[in-house]
Amino acid sequence: MAVDLLLGLQWGDEGKGKIVDVLTSKYNIIARFQGGPNAGHTLVFNGKKHVLHTIPSGIFHDEATNLVGNGVVIDPVIFKKELDKLEEQDVDYRKSLLISRKAHIILPTHRLLDAASETAKGKAKIGSTLKGIGPTYMDKTGRNGLRVGDLELNTWKDKYRALADKHESMIDFYNVDIQYDLKELETDFFEAVKVLKSLKFIDSEEYIYQAQKSGQSILAEGAQGSLLDIDFGTYPFVTSSNTTAAGACTGLGVAPNKIGEVFGIFKAYTTRVGSGPFPTELFDIDGETMAKVGHEFGATTGRPRRCGWLDLVALKYACQVNGVTQLMMMKADVLSGFKTLKVATGYKYKGETITHLPYNIEPENVEPIYSDFKGWSEDLTEMSEASTLPSELNDYIDFLEKELEIPITIVSVGPDRKQTIFR
Ligand code: GDP
Ligand code: IMO
Ligand code: MG
After folding, report:
1. What cofactor does its activity depend on (predicted)?
2. Is 13 a catalytic residue?
3. Which residue of 256, 274, 297, 321 has the fewest CB atoms within a 10 Å radius of its CB?
4. Atom 20, ligand 1: which residue's CA is nearest?
5. What percent of the chain has pLDDT over 90?
């Protein structure tokens, strides 16, 4: 059976966690394929909010198997905290949670290196989540990393020590004021590794292959968003993995011809957390309203998210690189009450009008060209049928579907599982 993918099309936080949870009942296996605890995926049901960082968003469904794929980077300390939270909720994760032996481990010194690198960059900092993501992927591609499978070998602590020592000299090299007590960090780390080792490690590409062969349905859960992709995002203000569809092939071992549906998720407006260009960013009352009504604060870092209008140029680009087959529009409820909505349909770039995403999208290079749409005043949060959606919202949706040539099959009207309208 083909593997379906679910990916964010903007700068992350589109609502991936919510929709994976909504769709899980249709799948046997939910698999994360990249990123790590930089992600914060929020699920809301039965009046309770849950935030997952590394664990796939299918974990609250008893019947689903949840796989942390080889493309993911795992911080045992954060992973343990996630497990503790699940235990508090009486979630029996032991039988349903599998971890790839080829996934890489985030060391305490990776986190310190992230902080040192960001401090050294000063104003030019990426605005990383400081979870050690960049340094861990650097060690992966530099062929120095520590993998989950290494933890099964007696020699893993020697490998750990050599790597951590090297990192310490690299931290010194940055010559910045980073205060840390490595011994203390290591106590937590080794404790957490013990917990991690009590879980089931597998050769995940073989598992995925056999699962496909035996007709099991698989949904791959993306983290971050397409505009944070290491190749196609707003480099260098990106994360260190391929967040786009191809990342699911390398991050799970799924052959390209075995990909089925590609679900692309976007907010009805745009947000970004951290540094980097954002052409449709708002600095006025409209942006403030989106932030306030949408509770736009990072699920991992708590930082306020920057807000702005929907950017169709960027969205088209994300649909192209991912081969999106179905779209899901999130947080439509947040736009209720705006008199006029704007969508960027092109950019003014070096004196010309363009409709594709250029190499440079810094504010000095591009100026968005907007189309206006009439807003709606109805509260959408109690709606459950597509037929009840206001006509102005339907016009907005029709326009996007026509421009993107992809159907919008879900409209989300609130954070809860139930606030999901299928079209
Ligand atoms: P993810 O990283 O893509 O899983 O998204 P996050 O969880 O970081 O951010 C999405 C935020 O929006 C969370 O607080 C969700 O609970 C919330 N959310 C998801 N869908 C909707 C929606 O349709 N309406 C509203 N108002 N909030 C939503
Ligand atoms: P989810 O999966 C939003 C951003 C950071 C920073 C840049 C690099 O919840 O959508 P990193 O720590 O990866 O080196 O940071 O990427 N970032 C995210 N922004 N949602 C995320 O994940 C993010 N993961 C990383 O803010 O700008
Ligand atoms: Mg998030």
Report:
1. Mg(2+)
2. yes
3. 256
4. 415
5. 97
